Amino acid sequence: MARNLVNLEGVHKAFDIKQLLDEVSLGISDGDRIGIVGRNGSGKSTLLKVIAGIEEPDKGRVTRAGSIRVGMLSQVDVADAAATVRDVVLGDKPKHEWARESGIREIFDGLFGGHSDDLLDRKFAALSGGERRRVGLAKLLVDDLDLILLDEPTNHLDVEGVAWLSRHLNARKNLGVAVITHDRWFLDAVTDRTWEVVKGKVEEYDGGYSAYVLAKAERGRQASAMEGRRNQLIRKELAWLRRGAPAQTVKPKFRVDAANELISTEPPPRDTTELLRFALNRLGKTVYEVQHAQVRAGEKEILDDVYWNVGPGDRIGIVGINGAGKTTLMRMLDGEIKPSAGKLITGITVKPAFLTQHLDELDPTWRVLEAVEEVAHHVELGNGKTLSASQLCERLGFDRESQWTPVGDLSGGEKRRLQLTRLLMDSPNVLLLDEPTNDFDIETLTELEDLLDSFGGTILVISHDRYFLERVCDRFVGLLGDRQLRDLPRGVDQYLEQRQEMIERNNLAENVVKKVSNAAQERQLKKDIARLDRQIEKAGEKLAVLEAEQEQATNAHERLLELTQEIESVKALQLSLEAEWLSATVALENQ
After folding, report:
1. Cβ–Cβ under 8 Å, residues 319 and 159
2. How far apart are CA 450 and CA 209, in angstroms?
3. Alpha carbon separation from 391 to 123, 233, 399 (Å, rounded)
4. More confident: 141 or 379
């Protein structure tokens, strides 16, 4: 029987005048896998903090099993400034203890690609945001916990890292997990229950993200049907009152169909024929042609002899390992850098918009709507569809009231949304999006995807959000760090398979090199031992000669003193040679 870990009963929690949790009652048991979704600011992080005991409820009760160990990964990773990665993740565990535990080695391999001393001795304060996130995850996964609470664990992880984390959590069956994330692929891969935090309440759903979407749509349909039924009953009641006597009625039937019936008549998310016709009209036949290009970033060669064609209406996802050159490739297409060899041909009608990972400077005194209207008042999406600046703001999460918020008062995620809104208002026909989903909640991501469905131009996307990539893109290319650009007809799955094959080939090559190195080291150790044997033997012979001469020189005081000093020197040399011989012998035995 599953053990109950944490219970919340009638919990209330407010900040200032905003009620974040209102009469919330729920529980978590051994092995539960819970995804927590909701708008930014709805109270998701507060709910995790209340469960962890970091925040106390204003009202209600939180009970925890007496012996449970709970760990939480928050959105801000902090540690002592002088602490190393070893200190944060492993604490005082001696190396000979943790290094023999396959589970700990697997965590280091999965998150960092290994556990070298260079990595472990790095200062936490000197790490990047992504590295700190991995260190925080590693600490939670290494510790023997009953429940882990994860607030945006996939931020800064690439597609490969997200896939590894999902496999690792799924392998630990008894570990309780509650996770807030906008990564919908990760939610589907890991969770089997969903909590939606909305208007202070927590709505519960069975299943991961996909099941949650279907169930929520079905609830909405039922609510709509019930509302229609209530209206019908009211009309009947009015008719009965007017007639003055009850009439014969038949109880209406309410049909509740399966979730797939709910979406059976839903059209495809985008009309590819119409969008392509619009793209051809606006872009012409050429967008980008990369011919035998070589691309460098400083002294590092990123791509070599690449041939790639990007056409009108293409929707291409770019995946690859960190440092392989995904952003550099985007910068080349945008004209920021030029290929060091080969050439890039850009269509004469191309009007690109490049969403970088860095926020453009915005005037903090602008209102949100003013910042958008400063670019344009209307945007054309294609196929006769246009949006006003205010409508586009609403689509990307700025309601009528928040459109009058000063830019200086926006959060990082809101500024990111504003940056994207301004780019779209400039009516580009090519979108270059570098990690567009950072800091977006799921509802905003859904609106963005719906918006991109109606975009008639070409889209190229770099993202670690696998769900977003597969939802928006029709084609995929991969960068695996070998300076080549690969077509991936089967998408992200094919990329992960090729990465695994590359890792296995590299490991095999390293093992071969290691064996060759070990054989050479073994030969050298044998030579050293033979040399030391000869030197020890010679030192012994010299010592015997000196001691014999010492016995004969009892009356020659000066010579006796010289002999005593020489004997001490030879004995010291003999001890040093024997210690070196012993070290070499032990090393040879351990080969």
Report:
1. yes
2. 17
3. 47, 37, 9
4. 141
Q: Which residues contact 156 (CB under 8 A, 6 or more apart)?
A: 128, 129, 130, 133, 134, 464
Rg (CA), the chain: 34
- Taken as a whole, the chain contains a residue count of 591
**Starting from the edge strand earliest in sequence, which strands make up the sheet with 341-346, in order?**
300-310, 288-297, 341-346
Contact 6, 64 (CB under 8 A): yes
Contact 331, 462 (CB under 8 A): no
pTM: 0.73
Q: C-alpha distances in angstroms, 210 versus 91, 190, 206? A: 39, 12, 10
Q: Is 368 helix (H, G, I), strand (E, B) or coil?
A: helix
d(CA 181, CA 456): 30
The burial class, CB within 10 Å (0-12 / 13-18 / 19+), for 472 is: buried
Backbone angles phi, psi at 562, to 5 degrees: -60, -45
Residue 85 has pLDDT above 90, yes or no: no
Predicted confidence (pLDDT) per residue in 68-81, tens digit: 899 998 877 677 77
| Three-state SS annotation for 380-412 | EEECCEEEEHHHHHHHCCCCCCHHHCEHHHCCH
CB 53 within 8 A of CB 196: no
- The answer to whether 55 and 42 are in contact (CB under 8 A) is no
Give the end-to-end CA distance of the chain in Å, rounded to a whole number. 49
User: Over the stretch 225-274, which tens digit does the pLDDT of each residue have?
Assistant: 766 766 665 555 555 544 444 444 433 333 334 444 544 555 666 666 66
The continuous run of DSSP H or E covering 470 comes out as helix 466-472
8-state DSSP, 99 = T
How many other C-beta atoms can be found within 10 angstroms of the C-beta atom of residue 250? 5
543-549: long-range pairs with CB below 8 Å, 24+: 543/567, 543/570, 543/571, 543/574, 546/570
Q: Cβ distance 449 to 468 under 8 Å?
A: yes
Q: 291 forms bridges with which residues in the sheet?
A: 343
Q: How far is the C-alpha of 285 from the C-alpha of 346, rounded, in Å? A: 11
What would the DSSP string read from start to end of 280-295? HHHH-S-SEEEEEEEE
pLDDT single digits (tens) 458-495: 999 999 899 899 888 999 999 988 888 999 999 999 99
3-state secondary structure (DSSP) of residue 543: helix
Closest CA to 165 of 136, 196, 145: 136
